[in-house]
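Amino acid chain
________________
===
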Amino acid sequence: MDQNIVQTFINRLSQKTLINRDQIESFMITGFCTGIMMWSYTIVEIFFMKSIIPPIMGISFCFLHAISLYLIYLKFSLNKVIHFMLVLCVCHQLTFSFFSGGFENNLLVWLSVIPILAGINLGGKMAFIWGGISIIISTILVMINNIIPSFSNELSLNGLVYTRLISHFGFILFCTFITYHHLSIQKKQHLIISDEKEKVECLFKVLFHDLGNALTKQGIGIRLLEKEEIDFKINKRFKLISESHQCMMEMTQNIRKMYAYSKGKAELELESISLNECVDFINEQFKNELNQKNISIQYDFNSNKDFKILVEPISFKYQVLGNLINNAIKFSHSNSNIFIEIRPIKGNIYSIDVRDEGIGIPKNLLPIIFKANQTTTRTGTNGELGSGFGLIIMKTFMELYGGAVNVRSLPLGEHKNHGTTFSLILEAV
């Protein structure tokens, strides 16, 4: 019941402040652990220190620490409130240490906890920053300790005993809560990822089923029409429709295979295939697009007539080389060239370079073009649209072949020899 109350409070606070629920939870656990420790040391200051200054300062720091949660409720920046809380923790610890022996007091080891709290709540960068602050503070205390040989120790013997008990059990408390919280977040993330993964798998299954059915019906219609007598002009268009349908069928089957390969449900069968055959296929496949922009594919068929690569033929033609040529056409202006060149790397490993004279890839997109969770879609030079998944699929198949992909790009306007080069690293046979 108590846990439900806490969870309800966290949910309401998250809705009120529009702050992520996990961040609120991390903040509250940090506040709870540090609050208990600060009040415990303050009680020792009140009852077991001779000077009145430490108790007054301790109560002040604890009071300010306690209102941190209210600051969040008032919609103050969470990051600023956490920094404020950590500053209070450091000031409280320094005050207590100053009046109980200075650097020789082993309580300053709590400075090492501050970067951990900063990292949990504010990220890795802040962990390093607060770690640096803790090191600087410790260094200053060492220097002061050399100037002032012995700090004033206002703590009684009983106070020293209670301080050690608080430090011992406090560290256990801190480790327990932080570890529990970290494991809880990991469990939540795992459940979220599993749920999203299940949804994606379900979507794939539905897509393959529905799309497969639609293409099958379309194929039946095409085969029936093939038996009819059609005049020349319509027959020419019909042939294009038939070829497009076949292309869609093969692409659907390839994506289904890729999905099966990634799940370990099937093995990719690599075959030796002539690169000349692949380029011939590309020329025929993209004949209309190349003619529309008057773009030429420059490739030396004679020099490369014996060159063969080890790939899965259909996926290489459509999803790998086809995707690269499609992009090269899309992002090139009219009356330009696309070059397909072969260069040796080491032994039987070669690079097939697909180079265009297009507008290039912007520097901000270059590092993320192969990432599925990033938006990289752009329109072509003639307004052509794309899905943004072509290069991701291409890279996936290249990895399944045991190869790799490299990319170099010089954007238009920044370089004279602008354009993009994709290098397909593959084994030749």
In short: The chain has a mean pLDDT of 82. The beta strands are 271-274, 296-298, 308-311, 337-346, 349-356, 404-410, 419-427. Residues 2-193 form one domain. The longest helix spans residues 157-226.
